[in-house]
Write a structure and sequence with these properties.
Keywords: Pyridoxal phosphate
CATH class of the largest domain: Alpha Beta
Number of strands: 16
CATH topology of the largest domain: Aspartate Aminotransferase, domain 2
Family: Belongs to the class-III pyridoxal-phosphate-dependent aminotransferase family.
Distance between the termini: 5 Å
Strand content: 15-25%
Helix content: 25-40%
CATH architecture of the largest domain: 3-Layer(aba) Sandwich
Strand order of the largest sheet: 4-12-11-10-7-5-6
GO molecular function: pyridoxal phosphate binding; transaminase activity
Oligomer: single chain
Pfam families: Aminotran_3
Cofactor: pyridoxal 5'-phosphate
Structural class: alpha/beta
Mean pLDDT: 97
CATH superfamily of the largest domain: Type I PLP-dependent aspartate aminotransferase-like (Major domain)
Low-confidence stretches: none
Number of domains: 2
Length: 413
Amino acid sequence: MLSKETLVEEFVASNPRSQEAFERALGVLPGGNTRSVFTSLPFPLVLESGNGCEVTSVDGKVYTDFVSDFTAALYGHSNPVIYEALKNIPLTGFALGGITQKEAELGEIIRNRFPSMEKMRFCNSGTEANMYALATALVFTGRKKILVFDRGYHGGTMSFPDKGNPLNIPHDYIIGRFDDIEGTKPFLSADIAAIIVEPMQCAGGVRPASKEFLVFLREAADSLGAVLIFDECVTSRLHFNGMQGSMGIVPDMTVVGKYMGGGFPFGAFGGKEGIMSLYDPYVQGPEKVLVHSGTFNGNIFTLTAAIAASKLVTPEALLNLNNLGEKLRASAQKIVEKTGFDTMYFTGHGSEIGVHFRGDGWYAVRESFYYYLLKHGFMIGFRGFICLNLFHTDELVDRFLQCIQSFVDEYQG
């Protein structure tokens, strides 16, 4: 039978440079990083480079990457299409301090995919975009309350895990029950300014919402005169038109980010022209217009990478990728069900998959699974997260599934 302690000991012994780099980082970075999701015990793997769907650690080990930067690396690593577009940017200047035509070009590309974003504005992360979307809804409605959902994640300053988040912006939140119509109805009130929801929660456990629940929210927003916001930073890669397009539900505002910047920091919030015109000085006049600025909004690197990357995102490419993800999830679930290994189960939709653990000793199983995969050359998110990118193939997925089967057999051994 597999031993978590042995797997961890083997990891420590075979990754001395990662340990050294981590200990150095602890000297200047609390926790040794600036992105808490990378935390793992006894120390995280430290990476040096990536190509396609492979990453290489500072210890020289190559791993097949099934994290895909938590959905942001849709295009894999060092994608040649994006590299080709970027290589001449240093020659033309990249901090021009003015408007460029690429802003409108990217805006048209995004609106083509998400017609609900009639007008939009760019920023530098999904977190920032969600902050602005909610602030816009408060101004537009003149109200203060915001309906959010348990385990929802709209960035580090607006997340709602079971234990709460002391870093949240102090809005007047009402926390409803995700994908639970009857459980959410009691929270509806006429003073709600906005309803914000992920069509599938990612950080909250890769939990898809039902179409019925999202339709219920659309109807509730209409009845209350509230602004319905879909946070599609993660889910926009699950269909060419996002999950709003696949389900035929049109929100008032949409937030996108992550992969859409082609690997560079990016966020965008947009919606109905009547809402977004609050930022238009030619409509509102200089005294009433909302001011939204940011030094790196619409920076040349991000715009160029995003425009190039958009050519890789076709309906066919996303369909094939999400079908491959469905194969992985369904096959992995079949493995644990067939072997009676009910400590572990899989959820998700398309190319995004959650790995969950339950029962006595579940944490040891999670750690064992993570370090077993690393030992055999596969990397997933430590918390139990799998995501595919455009470089993954059926052959790689089959090898990954074989490794999952081996883990289950040896753990039960």
